[in-house]
Amino acid sequence: MKNFRLYQIALLFFKKCRPVPMPRHLKDQLDRASASISCNISEGYGRLAKLDKRRFYRIALGSTRECRTLLILAEREDHELMEMLDFLAGGLYKLSR
User: Fold this and answer.
1) Whole-prediction pTM value?
2) CA 71 to chain centre
3) With pLDDT > 90 as the criterion, what percentage of the chain qualifies?
4) CA-based, 20 to 30 A from 97: which of 45, 52, 64, 83?
């Protein structure tokens, strides 16, 4: 996984989301959704069957969309975070097809 760029960006995204200030109920959801991205990429990467891989990549893709919405709701649309989400969503979309 060391050379899997999508996974590395997902980890970085999670770390950059940690200090983002927002209401507690949204912050909790953002923490879980941002962790879900890297966890599901990791789990999908470890699967042998294509259908299994796709299923986990689709879940990770859903979590990127959830993170985007949470940042918008909290009015924390940081340019760097949004760019990272775009990169993640594009890569996950390709992997989930």
Assistant:
1) 0.94
2) 13
3) 95
4) 83
